Amino acid sequence: MATFVSRFSLWLAMAAVAGVLALPARANTWPLPPSGSRLVGQNQFHVVQNDGGSLEAIAKKYNVGFLALLQQIPASILTFRVPAAY
């Protein structure tokens, strides 16, 4: 029983250390907007290469949700390719 308690204590201590080390999280910081403005951040433009990349990868690169990215793309330029075998 003593061995179980010491192993459990060791496991609990290692879990606590891992938790403390994981506490600092990455977060985006933005400058405050001018008085009366609701815009926070800055406009960014991204030219999509025709290399088979995905919108999910672009959303991850800029730390933007996939659905938020889709909302910003004009419907006139958004096209979906259907595989020829489909």
Oligomer: single chain
Alpha-beta classification = mainly alpha
Gross morphology: flat
Number of helical regions: 3
Proportion of beta-strand residues: under 5%
- What proportion of the residues is helical, as a percent range? 25-40%
Backbone CA Rg: 23 Å
Describe what this molecule looks like in 3D.
The structure is a single chain. This protein is mainly alpha-helical. It has a domain at 52-78. Helix content is 40%, strand content 0%. The longest helix is centred in the first third of the chain and has 20 residues, at 2-21. It is flat and about 70 Å long. The mean pLDDT is 76. GO terms for molecular function: transferase activity. Residues 1-27 form the signal peptide. This is Probable L,D-transpeptidase YcfS.
Key descriptive features of the protein:
86 residues, Probable L,D-transpeptidase YcfS, mainly alpha, EC 2.-.-.-, transferase, single chain
Architecture blueprint of SSEs:
Blueprint: H1 2-21, H2 55-61, H3 66-72
Short description:
With 86 residues, this protein is mainly alpha-helical.
